Amino acid sequence: MKPPHADEPLAGGTRVSPCPACGGGAQRPAFVAKDSLGPDSFQLVTCAGCGLVFVQPMIPPEHIEAFYAKGYYGRRHPALKDFFMNLRVRHVGSPVGGRRLLDIGCGAGDFLLACRQRGWIGVGVEQAGAPVMQQQAELGIIVVPPERMHELVEGSFDVVTIWHVLEHLPEPRVTLEAVRKLLAPNGRLVVEVPNFGSWQARLGGADWFHIDVPRHLLHFDRRALTNLLVRAGFAVDRCQTFSLEYDAFGLMQTVLNKVCRKPNHLFQTLIGRQTGRAPRDTAISAALTLPVGAVSTVVSLAAPVFGQGGVLRMVARPRSA
After folding, report:
1. pTM of the entire structure?
2. CATH code for the part of the protein at 78-242+306-318
């Protein structure tokens, strides 16, 4: 199959989108994945230049909101949620030598609240219509919409965090370049995304738990994320691929997706998302959760030793001019 190039028409006259990370036009087809929440399927391609995998054609920002069903983010048990938010704070470290933190895509503000308990002064960025925008006063945090990020003082943040948000953004480089301006010269960026280069991603393919098209517009392996950060003006300090929060469950759900009819059925059930009755999938998930979960835990503990864990977590610093 001839690789598509930017500005060439696809079937039906749709134009090919250039790579949202490097702007390159040379691409090769990866695979087609189905939306786990709807009837549509989407083509994914790999950029020949930087290695980014992305939805082709790229969905315009004004249309993507329609794919976020009500209750998309679901709910977690409060104790479990607090445990993982505190774990994220540990990845950031203590506010020694600086106390201002910016969380891009702060959701309900749970991470910012955990940071405040550790001494950080936190600010969040979230969509204007998100519930946290109306709750920020009672929560005691400050949240601004993305279009007002430019109003924040340049060089005023010691840490910026982006937890599982970058893969949702149609223009990731624009966001990262804005983040670089907001960071202090010795500040740190902590970014975490699903690892498209992981064992579980290769096992799952179109059935991988984290494919989640079209909400996950982008998919990164280590090379692709490093290339994007460098292009945006960062130097990568370190990379980890282990996540207690996502690794074992992501692999387990990926395996279940191979035998269930509805994608991510167990996950959607656990977070309280209504997906309709699926007694066959419920029975299969109930029967296989313990044995598959046990094997997934062992594999997920071994995978990061080889850089093959289910997530990528990179810490980067602004490069000097």
Report:
1. 0.91
2. 3.40.50.150
